[in-house]
Amino acid sequence: MLGFDDDADTLGLQVRLQPVGDLFGEPFLDLGAAGEVLDDPGQLGQPEDAGAGQITVNIPDRRHQLLAELLLDAVLTEGAEEDATHAAMRSATERGRQLGESARGETRPGRLGPERGLTACERLLDQYGYEPVRETPTRLRLRNRPFHPLAAKAPELVCGMNQAFLSGYLHGLEANGVQAVLAPEPGECCVRLGPSDTDHDDVMAQDR
User: Fold this and answer.
1) Separation CA 62–CA 158 (nearest Å)
2) For every one of its 208 residues, what pLDDT tens digit does the chain have, with 9 covering 90 and above?
């Protein structure tokens, strides 16, 4: 059981308590099993009336199940010529590639350059809790860390798997001129998506 003395940064929670008035009235949030928000997600942390008696809790999306599946697959398929880390990276790359190929088969987007490729990626990034933000037409910043706090305990492994997963997805989607690079920022995902070549004007010109 968690208490108020737990390390909020480690847990990845942001909690704001407001004065207790009608605390035992209708609850502001209804949390189901595994911490899923059953109320309107658009109102999470943004009540219409921030008056007395409301408790606002912001819970970042975490996807530990995906990470566990990738690690389990790595253990079960580790080859004689690879170590555990290489097996984990391979597993993450293959899962990402499979998802990318599936998405391409469903949407049939045609040729994808950097700009349209990132647009196609946003669906998966939203689905897996990355909270993508378009910084420029060819750069995506990922605001959330779906594998936190495990990434804080083993950053090289978890961040490397994260990059491998997204790189595999880009490959399966056949998004040309885009790459997933490690670019750690406090409070954000360790990976960003951007152009694979700094001199990509010709590619962008053909991308629309």
Assistant:
1) 13
2) 444 444 444 444 444 444 444 433 444 344 444 444 444 444 444 444 545 556 554 444 566 788 889 999 999 999 998 999 999 999 999 999 999 999 999 988 889 999 999 999 998 888 888 889 999 999 999 988 888 777 788 889 989 999 999 999 999 999 999 999 999 888 788 899 999 864 444 444 344 4
Q: What is the pTM of this model?
A: 0.65
Could you give the angle at which helices 114-127 and 155-173 cross, rounded to 10 degrees?
120
Verify cis geometry, omega within 30 degrees of 0, for the bond prior to 155. Answer: no
The CA distance from 90 to 21, in Å, is 54
What tokens were used for 76?
């079960």
Classify burial at 46, counting beta carbons within 10 Å of its beta carbon; exposed 0-12, middle 13-18, buried 19 or more. exposed
Residues near 89 by beta carbon (within 8 Å), at least 6 away in sequence: 160, 161, 164
Phi-psi region of 103 (alpha: psi -120 to 50; beta: other; left: phi over 0): alpha
Where helices occur in the chain by DSSP H, the ranges are 8-11, 64-77, 84-107, 114-127, 150-153, 155-173, 201-205
Structure tokens at 93: 């790359």
